[in-house]
Write a structure and sequence with these properties.
CATH architecture: Alpha-Beta Barrel
Helix content: 25-40%
Strand order of the largest sheet: 1-2-3-4-6-8-9-12
Oligomer: single chain
Number of strands: 12
Order of helices and strands: EEHHEHEEHEEEHHEEEHEH
Strand content: 15-25%
InterPro entries: Xyl_isomerase-like_sf
Shape: globular
Protein name: Xylose isomerase-like TIM barrel domain-containing protein
CATH topology: TIM Barrel
Largest sheet: 8 strands, parallel, barrel
Distance between the termini: 34 Å
Structural class: alpha/beta
Length: about 325
């Protein structure tokens, strides 16, 4: 399993050409829709992708389509850019494109009925997407979102739990599974069960499922790529007594997380149990993305974890 480092597609100073000689892969990340829709920023993205493509061996560059303000299902301009990103992926030898469902709305807008209708609309789009990718030389990995946004103000319930992916994948439309997002989702579910979150906060989650930590292994045939890091904190949808909301911090190291370090060791073992998944991107927060101190530490941590049998796929009841 090759290690992959992300960099902003608009900031080539975050990319180190030496990574190619270190047998690393890269994931070019477009952060916001403005990087797609503003002509100068889009031209910068294209130039940077072209330069990285020359420096990286074939099959060792991925591309991450933006999440913020990038609803390609409803916005025609964003959708055109998505098709153009596919063209660039083919042109530059990109191995895969990471794609979220991009149906983010404020917490108060969501209802269970809206969540169902939104997913149905997204499923219809995936039919078109699979057809569009029929002869593509790259995969598109649909990525799971966390159950709640980091600040407790917005969310996208479309692709959160393994069962949300049912009937969506096929051909070159596959899955990028984010272990940080899913471990946080399972943590929130545990807090709901334990009554840590009151009824007002519970109502903020429009599409809860009963799943186990390793149920993502049910998606094994469709998983083509991992995202790996940990999280700290719990995003609250309601302010505390001091008027402030607690938040979640993604991109943490396994030893600084809100769940035991051993949880991430077990998840790593499960990842290793799927040898067909060739790349894992470390989405680890850094003070300086030109000097990947925390990322390198997580890579060493992974290397130090003993090989262990991965858990068998579980099939608990789902609602």
């Amino acid at each position: 399993m090759r290690y992959c480092l992300p960099f902003l597609a608009t900031d080539l100073s975050q990319f180190d050409p030496d990574w190619a000689e270190q047998d690393l892969a890269v994931e070019a990340v477009v952060f916001d829709a403005e990087d797609l829709l503003e002509a100068e920023r889009w031209a910068l993205v294209r130039r940077n992708l072209a330069e990285v493509a020359v420096r990286m061996p074939p099959g060792r560059m991925l591309f991450h389509f933006p999440v913020n303000r990038a609803n390609y299902v409803e916005d025609e301009a964003v959708r055109r850019r998505l098709w153009q990103c596919f063209e660039l992926a083919a042109q530059f030898g990109v191995a895969g494109v990471v794609l979220h469902s991009n149906q983010i709305r404020p917490v108060e807008d969501w209802t269970p009925d809206l969540a169902v209708r939104t997913r149905d609309r997204f499923a219809e789009f995936c039919v078109h997407l699979r057809d569009r990718l029929r002869d593509a030389p790259f995969w598109v990995g649909l990525e799971n979102m966390p159950i709640m946004g980091n600040y407790g103000r917005e969310l996208d319930p479309t692709l959160v739990f393994p069962s949300d992916f049912e009937g969506l994948c096929g051909g070159q439309l596959r899955v990028t599974w984010d272990l940080c997002h899913y471990s946080y989702t399972m943590y929130v579910v545990e807090q709901l069960r334990a009554g840590v979150l009151d009824e007002r906060e519970r109502r903020a989650y429009p599409s809860l499922r009963e799943h186990g930590l390793f149920d993502f292994l049910d998606l094994a045939p469709d998983i083509v790529h991992w995202h790996f890091s940990a999280f700290r904190g719990l995003a609250r949808t309601q302010p505390g007594p001091d008027g402030r909301r607690e938040r979640c911090h993604e991109g943490q190291t396994p030893w600084a997380a809100s769940v035991p370090e051993s949880t991430y060791a077990q998840l790593l073992a499960a990842m290793r149990g799927l040898p067909h998944v060739q790349q894992v991107t470390f989405e680890v927060a850094e003070d300086d993305y030109r000097n990947r101190v925390n990322t390198r530490a997580v890579m060493r941590w992974c290397d130090a974890q003993p090989s262990a049998p991965s858990p068998a796929p579980a099939s608990p009841s789902r609602s």
